[in-house]
Amino acid sequence: MPLFPILLAAAATASATATSSATSSVEANAVTPVGRIVTVLHRDELAATGETDLAAALAALLPSFHFPAPFAVNAGGAGDDHVRVGTLRGLAPDQMVVLVNGQPQHTSALFYTSDMPGRGSVGFDLGLVPFSAVSRVEIMEGGASGRHGSGALAGVINIVLEDAPAGGRLGASFGQRRTTISGVPKLEGVVIEDGSLRLGRASERVVDDGDGDDLALMGDWGFALGNGGFVHLAAEYEDREATSRGGFDPRQQYPLRGDDSFDVRERTIDRLQTRYGDPEMTELDISLNAALPLSDRVTLYGFTALGTRDSESTAEFVRPVDPRNAPELYPDGFLPIVESDIDDRNFTIGFKGSHWGWNWDASYSQREDEIDWTVDGSLNPSFGGLSPTGFVTGNNEMQMRRIALEASRDLTVGFLAHPLWVEAGVESRSEEYEMERGELASYLDAGERDPAAGPVPAWSQGFFGYRDEVEGTRDLTAAYVSARNRLGRRVTLAAALRLDAYDGLDEQLSFDLGADVELSDALLLRAAGGLGFRAPSLAQTTYTRTRATATGAGPVLQGVFAPGSPVASALGVDELDEESAVHLSAGAVYTPVPALRLTIDAWQVDVDDRVVLSDELSGAAVTDALEQAGTDAAVFAARLAFNGSDVRVRGVDLGARYAMDLRSGRLDLHAAATRRWTDVSVHGTTSPLTGATFEPFGSLAAAQLEAEQPDSKLILGAAWARGPVDVRARLTRFGETEDLSFDAAGPLRIDPLWLLDLDVSFAVNRSVTFGVGVHNLLDEYPEVRSSGAGQPVANGLYPYSSYSPINGNGRLMYGRVSAVID
To answer: Which residues lie below 8 Å from residue 284, measured CB to CB, with a gap of 6+?
Structure first.
C-alpha cells in the first residue's frame, strides 16, 4: 500500500478522541470501547464549529462521519432534500445505530429514492435533536451488533443529554451568505434577432442579498427536583432561508406567435425561475431530561423530545410553452413549491436501581416520525385549466415502541485476578411503517389531452401524489449478554453475544470480540472483530409509490414496487433477506509524552446481500414477465428494493494531537484523517415465470456506490487561547468522488476540495461570550458540470452534482452570542 494514501488517511479521533479504556461515562451509556475507536465530543467543542445542526458539527470534527449536503436535481419530486442524513465509515445511513442516553432511536420516515448518497435506505434525522440539549456525543466506530443488534455495522453514536440540576445557557447565532458562484454566469441581456434568441453571459453571479440567511435561538435550563433529582429543559428555534445556485434558463419560454416570431416577453421573463439549492426551513425542537430518586436504591427517570420542521423546496420550473402548463392558470409558467411538515416525537420512561449486587434498568420507549407532504403553485395537467393549484400529496409515518430490561454487575471469579464485569438484557420491540395516499386530484387522470403532444401527465407537478396506501408492521424479541475483564495489568478483553428474532426473518446470532493490550504506559494496541447483521427496514419492505402514465395504448404504471408485490415477484424478488456483515479492525494508540497523542487503525467491513434500490427496469423481458404474472395493470417501468450487492469497505484511520503552553497563550494542534476503499459486486434476479435473468442493480449503479462518498477526508485544526480570546481554524480536505448518473458525455470527476473555516470568540466576562466566524472562507465550490455536452440545459440549470461532498452554497459569515446563567 503506498505511503501517501496512508499518511492522508483517517483517524476517527477528531478533536477529543478517548482511549479505548474510555471514561466511565461512555460505559454507563452502553457504548463498549474495548478494542475500538471511541471519540467523545463535548458540547463546547461542537458549538465552536459554528454549526447549528448537530450532524453538521459531527462532520466538521470527525473524518469518518460524512454528512452530504448536495442539491438533488429536481429534488422536489422525491423530497430527499427535506431530510439530511449522515453515514459512518462509508457505509449506508441505516448501517449505524443512534442512541440517546443509551436508548435506541428511530429512523426518519423518509425513504431515499433520488440518485444521491443514501439511495434505497432510510437514516437518522439528527437535525431534530436540540443542540442546546446535548452534553456530549460518544461515537464508537466498528461493528457492535453483539450488543446493539440490527444495523450496528459501522458503529454507534450515543447522544448524552444535559443533566445539570441548576443553571443553563442562552444563545443566538445569525449567518449570511456572501459568495461568488463559481462557474455560474449571470444573464446580461436577451436579444431577439434574425429569428433567434441571443442571451448574453457576464461574469459569475454574486450573492450578497440575504440568500441563505440562518437565524438560530437556543437555550436550556436545569433545576433540582425532590431530593437529589433534576429536570433539564432545552429548546431550539431555527429559521433558514432558501438558497439558489442554479444558472439561467436559455430556452424559449413562450409559444411562438401566429407569424412564427418570438413573443416579446422573452426579453423580460425572469430566467432564474428554477431554485436550485437548500430548502427554506423553520424548525422548533424541545426536550426534557429528568430523574427523581424514589428511594436509596430506585430512581425514576425519563426524557422526551418534540421536534417540528416546516420545509419548503421547489421542483423544476414549468415553462409557459411546456405542454404540462395551463396558460389560463399560469400565463408565465409555474414553479411548484414542495412543502413538508415533519413532526418527530419520542418519549422514554424508566426505573433504575441496585439490588442484590446488580445494577438494573427497566424502560419503555415510544417514538414516532411523521411527514405530511403538500405541493402549491402547481397543477394536474390532465385537468387543464380546471385543475386545482394546491394538493395534499400524502404522508409517511414511522413508529417504534420498545420495552427493555437490562442488568449489570461485577462478578468475582476464582481463577480471574480482577472482577468480571457482565451485562445482560432483553427487549421487545414493535415497529410500524405507513404511507397514506394523497388527495384524488394529485394522481387522477381527468382526461385532458394536448392536441400536439398527445397524453399529458396525470398527477400534481413537482410532487406526484401517493396513490398507494400501504402499511407494514413487525415485532422483535432479543436478548444479549456481554462481559469485560482485565487480565493482569495490561490486557483487557471484551465479548458480546446477542440473539435477535424478527418477524419473517431467520433468528440472527451476532457476536463481537475486543482486546486492548498495553505494551507500556505509552503504547496501547487494540483489535476487534465480529459478526453482525441488519434487518431490512420496514420502509424497504413496504414502500410503494407508483403513478399512472397515459399512452396511446392506455394507462400504464411506473414507479417503486414493494418486495413481494406481484410486480416484484414476477421479477424474482419475493421478500428481502437480512444483510450479514463481518468486521475486523486493529490499531494502536501511542502517547510518548502527555502532550502528544498518535493513533492508527486499520479496519474492514464485509456486507453481504446489502439492500439497494434497483435501476428502472423496462423492456420486452420485463413486460413478458409481468404479463405472464397476470398483474392487475400494465407496467411500463419498475424499481424495487432487493438484496442486490455485496460490499467490502476497507479503511485506515490516523490521528494526532499536540497541546503546548506558549508565552502568548495555549496552542492545541490536531490532525485526523480517513482513507477508504470500497468494492461492490452485484446480484442478478431471475423471473420464476419466464426464466429471464435481470440485473436490476447494474454495473453503473455499483460503480456509483463505490464512488458516491469521498474516498478520503483530512481535518487539520488549530486552537489558540489566551485570556478571554479563543481562535480556532480548521482546514478540511474532501477526497475524490464521481458522478456517473447525469452527463451522457461521461462521468463527472469531482476533484478533491479544501475548505477553510475560522471562528473567533471573546469572553466579555465569565457569563457572556461573543463570537464571529466564517465557513468556507475561501469560497470554494464543487466541480461544475459541463454545459457543452450531455444535457447542456439541465447541466446549466443544475450546475453541481448531487454526489458532491459539499453543497454549492459558498461562503457563510456568522456571528453568535452565548450567556451562562447560574
So the answer is: 235, 236, 237, 307, 308
Q: Which band of pLDDT confidence, cut at 50, 70 and 90, is reported for residue 21?
A: very low
Which amino acid, residue 466? Y
Strands 155-161 and 97-100, sheet pairing: parallel
Query: Residue 752: helix, strand or coil by DSSP?
Result: coil
DSSP 206-243: EE-SSTT-EEEEEEEEEEEETTTEEEEEEEEEEEE---
Beta bridge partners of 511: 497, 531
Query: Over 80: is that where the pLDDT of 8 sits?
Result: no
For 481-516, what is each residue's pLDDT tens digit? 999 999 988 999 999 999 999 998 999 999 999 999
DSSP 245-268: ------S--S---TTSPPPGGGGT
pLDDT tens for 430-463 read: 999 999 999 999 999 988 777 676 788 899 999 9
Place of cell 405472464: 628
Cell numbers for 643 = 438484496
- The residue assigned the cell 467543542 is 45
Is the distance from CB of 533 to CB of 510 less than 8 angstroms?
A: yes
Rg (CA), the chain: 28
In sequence order, which residues have a C-beta less than 8 Å from that of residue 477 and are 6 or more positions away? 426, 427, 428, 429, 500, 501
Name the amino acid, one letter, at 280.
E
Cα–Cα distance for residue pair 440/546, rounded to 1 Å:
14
The DSSP H or E segment spanning 123 is none
CB burial of residue 702 (10 Å; 0-12, 13-18, 19+): buried
Pull the grid cell for residue 506: 431467520
d(C-alpha 262, C-alpha 260), whole Å: 7
Number of helices followed by number of strands (H, E) in the chain: 10, 41
pLDDT tens-digit profile of 646-657?
A: 999 999 999 999
Helix (H) or strand (E) holding 286: strand 280-293
Helix (H, G, I), strand (E, B) or coil at 76: helix
* Burial status of residue 627 (CB atoms within 10 A of its CB: 0-12, 13-18, 19 or more): middle
Provide the sign of the torsion angle of the four alpha carbons 549, 550, 552, 555, taken in this order.
positive
**What are the distances in angstroms from CA 97 to CA 103, 141, 572, 781?**
10, 11, 31, 32
Q: Where are the beta strands (DSSP E) in 438-553?
A: 449-450, 454-455, 470-487, 491-502, 508-518, 523-534, 545-551
The answer to whether 276 and 245 have CB atoms below 8 angstroms apart is: yes
Q: How far apart are the C-alpha atoms of 741 and 104, rounded to whole Å?
A: 35
Torsion, Cα of 626, 631, 635, 641 (10° steps): -80
Task: Enter the pTM of the model.
Answer: 0.92
Which residue in 455, 456, 353 sits closest to 405, CA to CA? 353
Whether residue 609 is predicted with pLDDT greater than 90 in this model: the reply is: yes
Pairing of strands 635-639, 554-560: parallel
